[in-house]
Amino acid sequence: MSLSILNNIPSLAAQNQLSITNSSLQKTLIQLSSGQRINSGADDAAGLSIADGLNANIAALTQSARNATDGVGKLQVADGALSQVTTLLNRAVTLATESANGTLNGDGGSQRTALQTEFASIKAEIDRIGQNTTFNGTAVFAAGTSNDPNVLMGATTGKALTDTMTTGDSLKITAGGNSFTYSYTSGDTVQSLLNQVNASNLGVTASLSSGQLKLVDQKGRGDIAIDSSSTATEFGGFTNAAGTGSNVFSVYLGDGTSSGASHIDVTLSAFSSSNLNGTSLTSDSLSTAAGAKAALTDINAAISSVAALRGSIGAGINRLQAATNVINNQTQNLTTAEDGVRSADVGQSVANLTKYNILTSTGISALAQANQMQQSVLKLLQ
């Protein structure tokens, strides 16, 4: 090898290698301090994309579990309120049975009047419970007396449709296992589509809202699905809207994907003493023995109705708790997957740290030796 003083090639090589070693050492130190193998897109672009996607799903599922817990809390409040209604109705049974007894003084007498006064107080308290029971500042039992409410189901979101329909194009709508296919013919109007959907056996209400076709399932059977290769931009595309109703609240259990949020709709029908799931105590009176006997029949029917409502609420609680268990399992599995992609292998990182520390020391020594090589050239000039 020739001797040269113009360029110190060994020194340059040692510097380059030392720079590479220092970069690897810094990366290893960052991994150990953060606990993450991927700290930037440069570390693993594909892995970062996968890990961030999993992390987004985990965040959505975690919130879904909280949603379900809140839903259970609301249903438990409702069940507790109905439990008090049952207690009041049981007391009403006692009063009606006593009033029906022939040993009391005559109809309209002071004894039956006292029983009627307490019975009226019971009905007033049932009304108060139905109107004033709240959860998180909102009424648990909606205003109104409908005992057969529409359960409005939210449908798939994130499915924007923007093409223009031409003759021969079709639109397929599926709800609750039933499907309807609309074939576009030149000259068809938006209203003709609405009329055909509403006249179909889907049980879906179609309307035009803010320039978009809005589909709402009125029977609560599940999500509405739209399958179409094209739509009409004349009314801005098709959308599915989550419904709202006075007797319905939805618990959303989405996983963060764009295919649509999964949710559970629970009906909490409004009630009062005039409508306990179809049974009315309004006209009942304990002022007479005959009236007490008639009231006893209505009160027993009301107890059965409330029991049915509590059974429905109990089923909703069980469903939400089951959904929570599934969500927690999904969260655990996704967290494991995300951890496998993102987390650093501490053992491997420590081994790398030791290796790069040694390489740094040897690199510095090699650089010093390379820099001294040119000093030997001066001896030739002596």
From TrEMBL:
The keyword Secreted applies. One of its GO terms (molecular function) is structural molecule activity. The keyword ATP-binding does not apply. Signal peptide: none annotated. It holds the Pfam family Flagellin_N. Its main location: secreted. Residues 298-381 form the Flagellin C-terminal domain. Residues 5-143 form the Flagellin N-terminal domain. GO terms for cellular component: bacterial-type flagellum; extracellular region. SUPFAM superfamilies: Phase 1 flagellin. Keywords: Bacterial flagellum, Cell projection, Cilium, Flagellum, Secreted. It is found in: Secreted; Bacterial flagellum. Flagellin is the subunit protein which polymerizes to form the filaments of bacterial flagella. Belongs to the bacterial flagellin family. This is Flagellin. It comes from Koribacter versatilis (strain Ellin345).
